[in-house]
Amino acid sequence: MIRKHFAGFAASAMALAISAQAFAGTVTTDGADIVIKTKGGLEVGTTDKAFSFKLGGRLQADYSRFDGFYTVNGDTADAGYFRRAFLELGGIAFSDWAYQINYDFSHNAGGDNRSEDGYFDEASIAYIGFAPVTIKMGRFDPDFGLEKATSSKWVTAQERTAAYDLADYVNSHNGGMGIQVSGNYGASLYGSAGITANDPANRDEDGDSIKQFNARGVFAPMHEAGNVLHFGVNYATRDLSDTSFDGRIRSRLGIRGVSTDGGQDAGGNGNRLVLGGANNTPVDTYDTDSTWGLEAAFAAGPFSIQSEYLTREVQAKAANREDIDADGYYVQVAYTLTGEARDYKLGKFDKIKPANKGIGAWEVFYRYDNLSVEDDNGAFAAIDDVEAKVHNLGVNWYANEAVKLSGYYVKSKVDNATNANGDDDGDGMVFRAQYVF
């Protein structure tokens, strides 16, 4: 029912956008004059900037082909799916309030077990009257990590680093609600702290939601496009002592098609790596679940290099359990062959704007992901640790500011785990066509 109502709203909004461009005439208002912009979606606002709204969205159509460890039997499989299909509405009200509503029709952008009809990726209200401090409330992803801070529209590789899979709760709302305070001091310092009721399906025995605390701090002494020096630290923690939960630490190792959330994947032949943990972990098994993260980046003209490191500890509570420890990192280098630099602002990278409208901007990149988990419980009691290494090599073509075509090759190697066929390595390719408005 929500989907039908939202679809009706979207259709009405689009009709308004078409009507606004189809009819000429004079627009009158009882307040400040109105400015209408149609480049990159539809944006309407008053000249005094007290009120505005912008209608936009993103469409990402993916196709992937993979074999080896990525399938149960080791044979080749493929998957074609919409990675994201967002309709986005945001703006300003009464000068001091901002709002953002993002609805995902693809059902592939969130975590597991999303409604097959789509879901709200974000639905938030923020008070901005204390600028440069912002207080945000509602449903949104908490701050954790440089790649997560960068919009999915403009991340370098189609899929973010596999190292994030070691602690997938840290930068996802998982259907929960939260409040976050963030702010900056000039363009060099940024910080945020927030509390999220993460994943409402996980509650304690009294029915109280599990709370998660996040904090992120960034120092960027160099903070202009093509001239970036960036350092950051992140922390997230939650209490798991009084709840049962899905404790599996899993990774698709850069190939979403092995198991998408919206179907159109490899089906029963898709193989998703389990590095540790167990599903349906009972109450009083573990206690505090904490994750630290470090981030660094440098950019000089069309060249950029960035890296993040994560370490997670799930502390055991039951006498017959051991702590679960996870560590991961990535290193990524990218170069724009046509000379453009990546935009950067307030602790995150942004888009590449093509200088030549005829040939667009061409970018090549390489990323190495490394992730490992030590879990001496259950099925992993006889294994020191499970480790995965993933190589990602790709190219992006920014045809213009709205269209981006991408492709990358992924090669993975796993230690102490195989598929049913005995394969411990695999290959795959992912292609994406993206339109942003």
Question: Can you put this structure into words, describing what you see?
Answer:
The protein contains two helices and 22 strands. The two termini are 26 Å apart. It is globular. It has a 16-stranded antiparallel β-barrel. It has a two-stranded antiparallel ribbon with strand order 12-13. A two-stranded antiparallel ribbon has the order 17-18. It is mainly β and 437 residues long. The protein has helices at residues 2-22, 146-149; strands at residues 34-37, 42-46, 52-66, 77-93, 97-104, 119-130, 133-139, 177-185, 189-197, 211-224, 227-239, 249-251, 273-276, 286-300, 303-316, 324-336, 344-345, 348-349, 361-375, 386-398, 403-415, 425-436.
Please sum up the structure shown.
With 437 residues, this protein is mainly β.
Portion in helices: under 10%
The major pleated sheet works out as: 16 strands, antiparallel, barrel
Distance between the termini: 26 Å
Task: Compute the average pLDDT.
Answer: 90
Q: What is the total tally of β strands?
A: 22
Count of helices? 2
Main β-sheet, spatial strand arrangement: 3-4-5-6-7-8-9-10-11-14-15-16-19-20-21-22
Based on helices, strands and strand pairing, what is the structural class? mainly beta
Low-confidence stretches: 1-24
Strand content: over 45%
Radius of gyration, rounded?
22 Å
The secondary-structure element order is: HEEEEEEEHEEEEEEEEEEEEEEE
Shape: globular
What characteristics describe this protein?
single chain, mainly beta, 16-stranded antiparallel barrel, two-stranded antiparallel sheet, 22 strands, 6% helix, signal, Porin_O/P, Porin_dom_sf
